Amino acid sequence: MALRERLHGQPMTTLLVVRGDQVVFSEGPIDRATRIASIRKSLLAMLYGRPVEDGRISLDATLDDLRFDDIGGLLPIERKARVRDLIESRSGVYHPAANGGDDSAAEPPRGSQQPGSYFIYNNWDFNAAGAIYVQRTGRDIYDAFDEDIARPLALEDFRRASQHYGGDASRSTHLAYAFRLSARDMAKVGELMLAGGRWDGRTLVPADWVRTITTQVTPPAQMHPPHAAMRGVGYGMMWWVPEAAAGSPLQDAYLAWGLFGQWILVMPHSGLVVVEKYDVSVPLNARIPTVPVSTFLQEAAAIAEAGC
């Protein structure tokens, strides 16, 4: 009851906590598929697993190797960025992105940073990573998610026809691959990650890849701009990794995080997956009240400590 009382008045639509098949806590609609903002990037990270494993995608291939470009051309130094730099958001490519909702307003000048040396949350990197996935696999991102993850997981509310690319193609040819998922389907994605990528005896995401993408690459202290460093959450490969003390419920936890308060938090030590959603229909550059990530993580830790 205390948790429900705390949630009232918070800018959120749904909170869902599961452990395996058990629903530990549920507040709000769990079957409404709405936009999940940057959680899309964590879904792409999962899709990367198989083509990285079988060699179709090399993390060390450069943009130059791939003959990858954008409107107006990339700079010579930008062409040295590797695929791994893109999915770690450390590419040093500051070409305009097709969509907002990142920290691009604080980007350094183009050509000023060596690829792999400087973290800033930059949608060009993530959109380019999506375009490279399509280039190297010959598969549409939504078709791949539908076939490789949604159907095997029996996601209940995912509709392939409801997923659409978006953004301003006059700024960049590499568009955002927006996703719409429900809370209960997001929870299943988290359960798949918690299970090391295996579901009903099948490997949907290679276990080594699950560990790789959820291992911290960039600690908070190395993040830019300064407000990003203050959040206490590091970054792996398109998954966020909270800093937590040994013995904390958040030890070894990781999360997918989208604008306006969309989260999938995986907590291996308690076996919990925590999903929170805030269903809003506003532009990505809108300023509205949201739950800070620190508050969300504190609430999740309290749920785990309560023995739920």
Describe this structure in words.
The protein has 308 residues and is an alpha+beta fold. It has one domain: Beta-lactamase, CATH 3.40.710. It contains 9 helices and 15 strands. It is globular. The model has no long low-confidence stretch (mean pLDDT 95).
Descriptive labels:
alpha+beta; Beta-lactamase; 30% helix
Short description:
By secondary structure, the protein is α+β, with helices and mostly antiparallel strands. The protein has helices at residues 2-7, 39-54, 83-87, 123-137, 141-153, 183-194, 207-213, 226-229, 293-305, and strands at 14-19, 22-27, 34-35, 119-120, 165-166, 176-177, 180-181, 198-199, 202-203, 223-224, 233-235, 240-242, 254-258, 262-267, 272-277. A hairpin with a 2-residue loop joins β1 and β2 (22-27).
Query: Which residue ranges are poorly predicted, with pLDDT under 50 across at least 5 consecutive positions?
Result: none
**What fraction of the residues are assigned to beta strands by DSSP?**
15-25%
| Major pleated sheet | 5 strands, antiparallel
Order of strands in the sheet with the most strands?
Answer: 2-1-15-14-13
How large, in whole angstroms, is the Cα Rg?
A: 18 Å
Query: What would the principal axes of the Cα set say about the shape?
Result: globular
- CATH class equals Alpha Beta
Number of domain units: 1
Give the terminus-to-terminus CA distance: 13 Å
Q: Write the CATH architecture name.
A: 3-Layer(aba) Sandwich
H/E series: HEEEHHEHHEEEHEEHEHEEEEEH
How many individual helices?
Answer: 9
| CATH topology description | Beta-lactamase
CATH superfamily: DD-peptidase/beta-lactamase superfamily
Mean pLDDT equals 95
Annotation, overall tally of beta strands: 15
Structural class call reads alpha+beta
| Helix percent band | 25-40%
